[in-house]
Amino acid sequence: MSFIWNWVSSTISGLLGYLGLGGKSAKILFLGLDNAGKTTLMHMLRDDRVVQHTPTQFPTSEELQLAGINFKAFDLGGHKIARRVWKDYYAQVDAIVYLVDAVDRDRFPESKQELDSLLSDDNLATVPFLVLGNKIDVPTAASEEELRQWLGLSYTTGKGKVALSGSKIRPLELFMCSVLKRQGYGEAFRWMSQYIK
Ligand SMILES: Nc1nc2c(ncn2[C@@H]2O[C@H](COP(=O)(O)OP(=O)(O)OP(=O)(O)O)[C@@H](O)[C@H]2O)c(=O)[nH]1
Ligand SMILES: [Mg+2]
User: Fold this and answer.
1) 151 C-alpha vs ligand 2 centroid, how far in Å?
2) Which of 10, 13, 66, 105 makes a 20 to 30 Å CA pair with 146?
């Protein structure tokens, strides 16, 4: 009896796979300057704990379950040389999570420059962008308003549930967070998941 059941369930899962359902996993990229907190976030989402990381030299990927969606998340290094390979990952991407260190004001212009070049890249024209202002546990961190000014994000598409399908408007929003304190990014990923097909 059990072998029949095994056969039935493997046939069903094979069929779901064939239809692109079941094991569907959206592809997201974690981008942002070095030291922004990408690897810390990725490991917090995976293991729910903070681990101290050395700067990322080579891209890594993890399967994550977030807001009810399976994600394949790619953590790419943020230092200048590592940024050169970002474009190799743009194909078939479902969303971009762009991290900014909200404490490091000296690097806001550099972070804006990288963000602008991503936002204006034709290959990413329709891809939803979640921008995370990280490290708000540090007292000197910029406020959301201040970071919006610096990054030129005064006009974004809105938090919460905002229907944009059919409008040709790319979802773009800024959320403040502290990966260290587990604050802010839950709401941000729920916002993002509504735009993943
Ligand atoms: N205070 C504070 N520090 C954080 C937070 N998130 C990450 N950090 C620290 O920021 C530093 C850089 O974090 P990483 O995750 O290695 O940064 P990254 O973006 O992966 O950097 P690269 O791999 O070099 O591109 C580490 O010392 C982290 O502990 C946070 O929410 N608050
Ligand atoms: Mg890293």
Assistant:
1) 21
2) 66
